[in-house]
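Technical appendix A lists one of the benchmark inputs used to test multi-chain prediction within the project. The record comprises two sequence entries:
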Amino acid sequence: AQTVTQSQPEMSVQEAETVTLSCTYDTSESDYYLFWYKQPPSRQMILVIRQEAYKQQNATENRFSVNFQKAAKSFSLKISDSQLGDAAMYFCAYYSGAGSYQLTFGKGTKLSVIP
Amino acid sequence: GAVVSQHPSWVICKSGTSVKIECRSLDFQATTMFWYRQFPKQSLMLMATSNEGSKATYEQGVEKDKFLINHASLTLSTLTVTSAHPEDSSFYICSARVPGLASTDTQYFGPGTRLTVL
């Protein structure tokens, strides 16, 4: 079974600064996808970014980018120019390409943004 | 992006009663929907996978007779908590899979339902 580990329960960042959230995963599969979801205080889960394992190029979405290290099974999220609205729980998630369609979530990292 | 709604957003009920939560995909057809439970300050725990027109697949430890799931159409899945008790109080979230190739497969989440059982 796949596991996803987020080793940082809480992180904080100054507004306008950059922060990196860590995620590692364990799998024996070669075809999979990785996601970062954001859950603000409203508790609505929002997709931040996705990465296909077969792609070497790191995904980027505006101020959000990932550092995908396949051999190390590491998938970190970098948030640049942090904004107050970035304060939320961030969940790393693994998605198998084998057809189960299920997401496996990490325990989450609570990000605080300091004005 | 795809929109998923949940109704109600918040419900309080008495112990022993049943509560139904609806999950709808508003602008796409979802062959597969998922139901999660989230305790305060914890991650999402998958309860069951719901496929349109077939029985739901429950995760280990989830009582299928207590948490009844029906996926009668491509845009609607319902979760019924039967004979609810205070320990069933939680935040319930559904998600819907946007069908397609695995390379574009993505789940979109509803806003969640907070259930409080008195």
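The mean pLDDT of chain A is 94. The longest strand of chain A covers residues 88-96. Comparable benchmark entries are summarised in Table A2.
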